[in-house]
Amino acid sequence: MTVIIDGKAEAANVIEAVKTATAQLKTTKGLMPGIAVVIVGEDPASQVYVASKGKKAQECGFHSVQHTLADTTSQEDLLSLVDTLNNDPSIHGILVQLPLPGHIEEGEVLQAIDPDKDVDGFHVINAGKLTTGIGTAFVPCTAAGSMLLIERIRGKDFSGLNAVVIGRSNIVGKPVASLLLAANATVTIAHSRTADLPALCRTADILVAAVGRPEMVKGDWVKPGATVIDVGINRIPAPERGEGKSRLVGDVAFAQCAEIAGAISPVPGGVGPMTIALLMANTLVSAYRSAGQVPPTF
Ligand code: NDP
Question: Are 108 and 192 part of one and the same domain?
Answer without folding.
Answer: no
